[in-house]
Amino acid sequence: LVAIRGTNEALYYWRKGSIGTIRGAVTSTFTTSGTHDAVSTEVGTTAPMSPQYLYGYFWFTDAFGKPWRFAPGGALEPLWEQMNAAFGSLDEPGVATAMQFTGADLALTMVAPYPGINGVVFAFSPYNTVYYTRLFVFAAGSGQLWGEIDFDAVATEGIKLVASGAVVPAGEDINALSV
């Protein structure tokens, strides 16, 4: 097991290539009396701190660092597909500003709330760096990609911010904006 997170309804567990739930009363025979259900038999995580329950969804990065989310009892939502559309292919080197997701390139991934705008941040740290260099922000309610912050270019170009085009005033909810 890579990670375990709980809600009032179930315990959710992540393996490298799968996600499951355990439901039922905790008894001395919990391992046999609990109900086990698969959330996914193909997607999991290798980042133990990645799965976070925020704004009614589990947000996490898979074994390749690609962002996903799901509501308890719901289907997986591949958030990374929006990154392909906004920033170029994630699978072709050198296209647009998209991050190249391979297990060998990423040292750390982190998922954190962005309460000022009711969003969720996915942060990435490639090997050979001591800080997170790429941040992608998603709207908590809709899951819509809001933008990318790239700190990796600081030495040559400064900090790059690529946004959806909507200006979010302080204290406003990005889920209420139409972008």
Overview features:
single chain, 179 residues, mainly beta, five-stranded antiparallel sheet, four-stranded antiparallel sheet, 7% helix, globular
Model description:
With 179 residues, the chain is mainly beta. It has helices at residues 30-33, 80-87; strands spanning 3-6, 11-15, 18-23, 35-40, 52-54, 57-61, 67-70, 106-114, 119-126, 134-139, 145-150, 160-163. A hairpin with a 7-residue loop joins strand 9 and strand 10 (134-139).
Average per-residue pLDDT, rounded, comes to 75
Q: What share of residues is helical?
A: under 10%
What oligomeric state do these chains adopt?
Answer: single chain
Beta percentage is: 35-45%
Q: Can you count the helices?
A: 2
Protein topology:
Elements: E1 3-6, E2 11-15, E3 18-23, H1 30-33, E4 35-40, E5 52-54, E6 57-61, E7 67-70, H2 80-87, E8 106-114, E9 119-126, E10 134-139, E11 145-150, E12 160-163
Antiparallel strand pairs: 1-2, 2-3, 3-4, 5-6, 6-7, 8-9, 9-10, 10-11, 11-12
Summarize the entry for a quick read:
The chain is built from two helices and twelve strands. It has helices at 30-33, 80-87; strands at 3-6, 11-15, 18-23, 35-40, 52-54, 57-61, 67-70, 106-114, 119-126, 134-139, 145-150, 160-163.
